Amino acid sequence: MHRRIIVPGALGAASLMLAIPASAAAHSPGAPGIGDPYYPAYGNGGYDVSHYDLRLKYRPDTDRLEGTATILARTTEDLSRFNLDFLLDVGEVRVNGAKASFTTSGEHELEITPRSPLRKGTPVTVVVRYSGVPSSEQAYGFTSWHRTPDGGVAANEPEAAWWWFPSNDHPLDKATYDVSVQVPDGTQAISNGTLQSTSSRLGWTRWNWRSDKPQATYLATLAVGRFDLTTGTTESGIPVVNAYSKDLGAHDGAARASVERTGEIADWLVGYFGPYPFNALGGYVPNTDTGYALETQTRPFYSPRQFANGSNVSVVVHELAHQWYGDLVSVRGWKDIWVNEGFARYAQWLWSEREGEGTAQELADYTYASHPADDPFWTVRPGDPGPENQFDIAVYDRGALAVHALRVEVGDEDFFAILKGWPARYAHGNASVADFQRYAEEVSGKPLAALFDTWLFQPSKPDAPAARAASLAQTSDVPARPRSWQRIAATNDVHGH
């Protein structure tokens, strides 16, 4: 309610100030970043999103995307305005049904001012109508939208959402999703979760996908093109949907021979990480010219290049391991990336053991010995690598060495209890490297600060005594290369964005 007070002169101004409720005067803009030191402008402050409903229309021939995003959130402070992360052209914004004013700022900020300030704890419905050509947009000199001969793909880390939907783009704000995409008949739209329905009318087909468990924004994906879809189920009954671009050419067979093993690999990982945490599974291979893969939740993205030298089951193991380590439990901040990558790499080492192509111990020995003390590899600290080294090979390989050092230190019984218990402890939430250390100490009953510091935070190669104590180097010679090494190394650029 607004009261209009007409009082002449200075007395009027004073009376007007007195008439504004203290709570209204306290409203302030939400922060344009969620507080991550690696990416200060990513995410936003002042609210928490619970659900995204995205209703889209996409024209593959022109790369034009039209959309209406309905965002359900709750304020976490008194807000006079708030931001969303977004790049496309916005036509209208409504907040709780009323038109809101909006403007843009920075590289990717959409600033929204609701008609009335929002009190802390208020449920908020934000509707954003937008359109644009994603491939024409860049932020910080790059794009996370991949134009393909028959459409487009949104997949990248740590950011991809800006090119196709407005969001609070940071893993700290996870939400559920409904993604409904209208595309020309004969074209498929692939996203996360379960395919709820498809329907066709007047030359257009609508694909409706649902992710009913919390999902980080960078893990939401969209791929439109001409795909061949295969379906199946895991032994535990999880539905599997895989999709392959119809123009993969020579890569097609190797891609299918790898990704079609998704259900088998997920069932195997259950033995190490606990029950599969979602109700859908799969993977997709669009005809992109990128080189990386990404653990987009329930349906990882694989570039054709991952299969250029034949089948690559190891990369499938890596991305599926992320469904527990990275997706079910997401980073608290981007500096905590080791909790994602070190364990996904270690899953590849465990798969190598299963296949009889080199034990985790042999892979650890070879990795350690392959990098002399003056190798820059050892200057990267996996526990806090900095944004410039967030996806450096050391985060993967030195990160896996840290995981193996933990295994040797606490013994297999406690180690595998930690592997399985960690995803359950922080399920559908966020956690840090420090949280993991505390949890490992809790399970093992051992002080582990020195071990974590040596393997994750010191910018130098652990000395020989420390390495021998962790059984990582028994001689000065480089041990024989495990047979799985080349296949594992072929995934080194999985996040080389």
Produce the secondary structure layout.
Blueprint: H1 9-19, H2 22-25, E1 28-29, E2 47-59, E3 64-75, E4 79-85, E5 89-95, E6 98-99, E7 101-105, E8 109-113, E9 123-132, E10 145-148, E11 151-154, E12 175-184, E13 188-190, E14 194-201, E15 204-215, E16 222-225, E17 227-233, E18 239-245, H3 252-259, H4 262-273, E19 281-285, E20 293-294, E21 301-302, H5 313-321, E22 329-331, H6 338-355, H7 360-370, H8 393-410, H9 412-425, E23 429-431, H10 433-444, H11 449-457, H12 464-469, H13 485-489
Parallel strand pairs: 1-4, 2-12, 18-19, 22-23
Antiparallel strand pairs: 2-3, 3-9, 4-8, 5-6, 5-9, 7-8, 10-11, 11-16, 12-15, 13-16, 14-15, 17-18, 20-21
List keywords for this structure.
single chain; 497 residues; alpha+beta; eight-stranded mixed beta sheet; four-stranded mixed beta sheet; 13 helices; disordered N terminus
Write a brief structural summary.
Residues 1-24 form the signal peptide. The chain is 28% helix and 28% strand.
Write up what this structure looks like:
The chain is 28% helix and 28% strand. It starts with 8 loop residues before the first helix and ends in an 8-residue tail after the last helix. The protein has 13 helices and 23 strands. The strands form six sheets. The chain has an eight-stranded mixed beta sheet, with no helix packed on it. It has 497 residues and is of the alpha+beta class.
